[in-house]
Fold:
Amino acid sequence: QVQLVESGGGLVQAGGSLRLSCAASGRTFSKYAMAWFRQAPGKEREFVAAVTWSTNYAYYADSVKGRFTISRDNAKNMMYLQMNSLKPEDTAVYYCAASNGALPTIRKGLCDYWGQGTQVTVSS
Structure:
């Protein structure tokens, strides 16, 4: 079992930055791929970024590539999402997730554990 808690959300102006954190507790955090998703009001949840457990390869949705950076610190059981050049369309609840699966299943949202989410609001 893995418990995930997000933090770091808030209100920021367009062009600004935020850093989201995901604290994991439970066993074998380092064995899971970790990912960020987001869900805007009235929209479906969408994949944002993922990082593997073994090789630290990172993958991004096209909409955030070049602006967001995902990272993890297995020693601290933490994952992060550095978000730069934020846009109003980045406004959403952001969720962290842990998965035993491969990237194709992660991108579909088929993850094993989910956090409760943290709100990010970008004003224009």
